[in-house]
Amino acid sequence: MRERRCVEVLNGALHELFARRSDVYLIGEDVLDPYGGAFKVGQGLSARWPDRVITTPISEASLFGVAAGMALRGYRPVLEIMFGDFLALGFDQVVNGISKYREMYDEQVSVPLVVRTPMGGRRGYGPTHSQSLEKFLMGVPNVTMVAASELHDLHALMIDAVEDDEPVFLIENKVMYGRPNRRPDGGYLDGMRCVEGAGPYPSLTFSGNDFEESAATIVAYGGMVPLALEAAVELIVQHEIFCEVVALSRLLPLDLDPVLDSLARSGVLVTAEEGSLTAGVGAEIVARVSEAAFDDLRAPARRVAARDGIVPAAPGLEAQALPGTAEVIEAVLARQAARTT
Amino acid sequence: MAEQHGSTDEVDAARALPRFYRQMYLIRRFEEMLLDMFSEGLLVGTTHTCIGQEANAVGVAAHLDPGRDVIVSNHRCHGHYIAFTDDAPGLLAEVMGRETGTCGGKGGSQHLCRGNFYTNGVQGSIVPLASGIALAERERAEGAVTTVFLGDGTLGQGTVYECLNMASLWSLPLLFVVENNRYAQTTPTELAVSGSIVDRARAFGVDAHELESADVDEVHEAAGRAVQRVRERGEPSFLVLHTHRFAPHSKGDDTRDPADVERLRVHDPLAVAGARLDPAVREQIEADCERELEAARAAGEAAPAAGAVAAR
Questions:
Q1: Which of B81, B120, B129 to mutate to test the interface with A (most CBs of A within 10 A)?
Q2: What is the ipTM of this complex?
Q3: Is there a domain that residue A207 lies in?
Q4: What pLDDT band is residue A339 in, cutting at 50, 70 and 90?
Q5: Is A89 in the same domain as A211?
Q6: Cα–Cα distance list, A158 to A64, A164, A242, B85, B86 (Å)
Q7: For residues A217 and A268, is the Cβ–Cβ distance under 8 A?
Q8: Which residues constitute the domain of residue A211?
Q9: pTM of the model
């Protein structure tokens, strides 16, 4: 059977939700058919449910609040933010509203909204349309952040996000949309064994040596997941070094258990993210690992990330700014040298 | 239409006045008590009183059904809260940081939620929230009116205009009430608000009116027309109430000349309404309110402090 492209899977999940629940709405810019949103995830929805797809002016600062108001009153709005970079415009609503209402109002309310937005570069969109800003959400309490990748069950991620009673930020990677949503077949993917975590927003852990002792645990999410997996395969082929890759989908609350589980077999932590280095997602993972499992570590942790600067537009410059397979391989090799035993 | 039923309206107003006076007096004395308690060191944190502006809360809330309609308010919310919910004890306990407070002590003075009443402390945040609530209520189609209270200071926030635009485009059953007390904290409107306030709403095709009055009956009448319009047409409306704040923005942060503030007291809505009441009725209302507030304070003092167990 042909593997469906990621955008089709996400779109199919939204169609299923719209058909099943009358409380689900899609709100966002340019979401009406025939356009169906800048990345086409909402295509076909407004034709079938014209009353539940609301196209908006360019007003992100307010749209987050509009979604929050709908959610407070019992609806399940899905807010599409055309580019993740525009989260910055709505941050007041996120920090001073969405993340506060349930706790601040003493559990009298819930805010079951989903903010869907694409992050990431490698499309040449330049400095304000290519960023990975997950790190700014990492510091926001009382919200769930899910990073989708082309190897996760995207259908389940979308369904679970919309049916979650907490506010969910569903980060969709920009380059994944057009690619097939590849899934493990019989527990294997690209020749690696793959174990999927339990519950909503599960992690995927990949091993090339059947979960025997390994050289490093590479923790990745979003657009770095296929690159980390590629690096792991290449490390086996070129260097006979076996690593595990932990592909997280739930970044908030941080899904630490699969990381600790893998580290017990490897002792070496490498994080890989497309956002810039300072105060990034990797920093939080490293801090939590050192608090929870310092004794398991046999080398200093290493963060692979974009450089602290802009994501330039020109393909050559963009490639220099963003981390790739080579940087992940280099990090693992460097840590082998530093490894104690 | 109002002229046709003028005599009936007058009878209704006379009947409503004691109720309005009671609410306004309760709000006034509640907030004066808060300021006293702050001075005595019995309260911590902050508060923003609406002393002088009580007619707005009471005149608008009288048209709203707490079981169906929604109010979204701001930092200066005590009057709106009491007029809509009649829950002075819950608010007092909240400001006192008690477990029995409206939000169990988690929100304090400016972060309240009870039933269909919501408030938040960031000026630009509340209007988008109210717009989303109004959108939800439009979809539910039960005729609910959502009212958002904002001040002249909030007019500096871009979200207000984003939301006027969407409210107009989407026919949201949303009433914007701007209480123009002529100061954003210490900054007079001359330094912060250009042009005409009502024209700002009209530019978006939103029905807009203004009123300069400290008379609760007049506010009630103007608000009635606006609420009715929103409810019947399912369209937004924008009502500017020019008003006066006699007390500081918060506590002890008034930079105005006290003599100037004193002169504003000719616009005291309590004096305006009180003069129309039978003195015996007025006295009885005031005595009842004083007793009510004493009981609320005693209940607050007797209630356990929120977080007391954790602190031990």
A1: B129
A2: 0.96
A3: yes
A4: confident
A5: no
A6: 19, 10, 32, 39, 43
A7: yes
A8: 188-338
A9: 0.96
